[in-house]
Amino acid sequence: MIIGNYNNYHPAPVNFKGHAGCENIITRLGMRESVTTETRFFRDYESIKFGIKYINEVFKNLKEKYFIVGACSTGEDMHSLKMLMGNNPVKITGFDIGKETIEQAKSGIFNLYTPADIKTSKYTRIVDIHTYDDAFLAFDKPDLTPEQKELKKLFNNHFESIDTKDKMIYKLKEKFRKIFDITYAEFNKLKFRYKNPDNSLEFKIGDIRDFKDILPNKKGQLFTFKNSFYHIVTDNNYCTRQELPEKQIKPMLDNIFKNINKSLDKNGLFIMGEKEDEQRTNIHVIAKSLSDNGFIPIRMPDRPYLNIWKKTKEID
Ligand SMILES: C[S@@+](CC[C@H](N)C(=O)[O-])C[C@H]1O[C@@H](n2cnc3c(N)ncnc32)[C@H](O)[C@@H]1O
Q1: Cross-strand bridge partners of residue 312
Q2: Rounded Cα distance, 177 and 183, in Å
Q3: Do 263 and 219 form a contact (C-beta atoms < 8 A)?
């Protein structure tokens, strides 16, 4: 059994990270696209918590809720929603453009890499940027906040750790070798398995721009497409991420939001990432398109922009 008391481990575990990071995809018109598949559990926590509370109140007479999760990557968004729903029955359909990503999501296995020695630990503490802080779910850390303790309880009800002796070793880039005086970073691999697979989670390959392939046959109360707009509103070149002109993206976004509108019950919610605007995404065009397609923003305090929208009218 690898997992144990946090204090028995070197500090600075790295986080759950979804798929290895990127997937290359040959897609439409023979154009090669590359997508970033990084994700984490409870990402955009304040927003999804708000969404779940809202839906359980507004649709309280609906026994089983239905959610659609676009760009679901390896499934962490879906599991997070399911965990936050607790005993409230819900079915969730997730789709993602990535084939490997969906295969991994279907497996229900999640990996977390933790430094196997002190030197690797020093390296990850500096290099592994802790923007995706969900490793607390896997360790008995003494200083968890009450909220983290609650989430950890949900996580333990939902996942079990699997004994594994797997390691991951990777060669460091020249500049890091000099700084940290090591050639290889060595990690233990912790594995967690979704405990109770049932038919509540469904994973599909699908592109949000080809909505007909993913259109569900029933209406949902929540639709999310988080931290993924940059893949469709920029030139999608990892280095430049140039915004595409508004006249090119507005019709595409209109089509997407018209279809999202059709997939939702009235008063249903659409949620995007809390930091889409930091990902070179022109958030104003997205907001305009949402407004033009039957949605109004719901105010959230402390958000840099409005990322939660409510469907208020049907669109033809
Ligand atoms: C950075 S991840 C975000 C994952 C997750 N939603 C989150 O908030 O952590 C971006 C995901 O968008 C997916 N994606 C990119 N373009 C897409 C498209 N046109 N349709 C569906 N998924 C897409 C990628 O495959 C990738 O898994």
Answers
A1: none
A2: 5
A3: yes
* Dihedral sign (CA 140, 146, 148, 150): positive
Q: Which two tokens stand for residue 188?
A: 């233990």
| Residue range 39-75, pLDDT digits in tens | 889 999 999 999 999 999 999 999 999 999 999 999 9
- How far is ligand 1, taken at its centre, from the CA of residue 226, in Å? 7
Q: What are phi and psi of 225, to 5 degrees?
A: -145, 90
Ligand 1 centroid to 15 CA: how many Å?
18
Tokens matching residue 266:
């009235």
- The DSSP element (H or E) to which 84 belongs, if any, is helix 76-85
295 φ/ψ angles, rounded to the nearest 5 degrees:
-115, 150
pLDDT of residue 13: 55
Q: From the alpha carbon of 25, which atom of ligand 1 is closest?
A: 25
Choice from 76, 207, 228 to test ligand 1 binding pocket (greatest atom count within 8 A of CB)? 228
Nearest 5 degrees, angle CA 260-CA 32-CA 77? Answer: 40
Ligand 1 atom showing the smallest separation from residue 23 Cα: 25
The residue whose C-alpha atom lies closest to atom 18 belonging to ligand 1 is 207
pTM of the model: 0.90
Cβ contact 89:65 at 8 Å: yes
Closest Cα partner for 111 from 77, 74, 140?
74
Q: Which residue's alpha carbon is at the smallest distance from atom 7 of ligand 1?
A: 39
Whether the pLDDT of residue 18 is over 50: the answer is no
List of domains in the chain:
44-101+206-311 (3.40.50.150)
Nearest to 219 by CA among 48, 72, 67: 67
Ligand 1, atom 17: nearest CA belongs to which residue?
97
* DSSP one-letter code for 173: P
Rounded to the nearest angstrom, the distance between the alpha carbon of 72 and the centre of ligand 1 is 6
DSSP code at position 279: G
Stretch 290-307: mean pLDDT, rounded? 90
